[in-house]
């Protein structure tokens, strides 16, 4: 069942089409659809209590953003990844997210740091409880809360697109192996942010991304 939470700021949606798009996108980011799974317009429309038309448009938009893919048989599925593509996404995420975090630094004060610490406490608690969904949600909110501070509108849309492509596969790995062994670089990142140390901020972001995506083994990937 698709949750009713959204990753974008809470606000009134202008159309049903817009609401459905964000709900499906949010479900992908939170790992509610797994790689290789087919997505049906009728099934989503029933879950979201709407007609097929806004679901069809949402799937079209998400396919254009590479969060979903259209097969030769016209089935919409959650993509699987090759090692080559995952490595490319990892490099792109490092470049973009390091820049977004650096842009956020001038806008971080005590209240923002307190918010990040509270989100990291939530992540730590989820790791201790082996709560996959809570970990995924907390990690998502931690990163995007930081990145939005610098108002990197173009960069942020690119980062969201890359997260959409890797989130289902990461969630599959978490389901198989749990989250208790995942490294947590957020404390290092928060300390670097508090000290306005851009080099250390970039290092912590890079390590967080590379270690997180590095947890995906060859068994979860398609052959190149």
Automatic annotation (TrEMBL):
A Pfam cross-reference name: GntR
Gene3D superfamilies in alphabetical order: GntR ligand-binding domain-like, Winged helix-like DNA-binding domain superfamily/Winged helix DNA-binding domain
Top-level division of the source organism's lineage: Bacteria
Keywords: DNA-binding, Transcription, Transcription regulation
Source organism per UniProt: Microbulbifer harenosus
Keyword NADP: no
Signal peptide positions on this chain: none
All residue ranges annotated as the HTH gntR-type domain in the record: 14-81
Name assigned to this protein: GntR family transcriptional regulator
PANTHER family per the UniProt record, alphabetical: HTH-TYPE TRANSCRIPTIONAL REGULATOR MCBR, TRANSCRIPTIONAL REGULATOR, GNTR FAMILY
């Amino acid at each position: 069942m698709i949750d009713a939470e959204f990753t974008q700021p809470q606000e009134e949606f202008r159309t049903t089409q817009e609401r459905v798009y964000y709900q499906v996108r949010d479900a992908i980011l939170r790992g509610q659809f797994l790689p290789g799974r087919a997505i049906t317009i009728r099934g989503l429309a029933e879950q979201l209590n709407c007609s097929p038309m806004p679901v069809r448009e949402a799937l079209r938009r998400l396919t254009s953003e590479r969060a979903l893919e259209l097969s030769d048989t016209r089935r919409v599925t959650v993509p699987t990844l090759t090692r080559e593509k995952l490595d490319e996404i990892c490099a792109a995420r490092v470049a973009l997210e390091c820049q977004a975090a650096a842009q956020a630094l001038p806008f971080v004060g005590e209240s923002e740091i307190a918010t990040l610490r509270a989100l990291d406490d939530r992540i730590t608690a989820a790791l201790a409880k082996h709560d996959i969904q809570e970990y995924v949600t907390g990690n998502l909110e931690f990163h995007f809360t930081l990145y939005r501070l610098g108002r990197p509108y173009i960069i942020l849309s690119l980062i969201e697109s890359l997260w959409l492509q890797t989130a289902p596969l990461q969630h599959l790995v978490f389901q198989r192996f749990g989250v208790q062994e995942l490294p947590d670089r957020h404390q290092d990142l928060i300390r670097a942010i508090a000290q306005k140390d851009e080099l250390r901020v970039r290092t912590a972001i890079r390590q967080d991304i590379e270690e997180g995506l590095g947890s995906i083994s060859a068994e979860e990937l398609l052959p190149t």
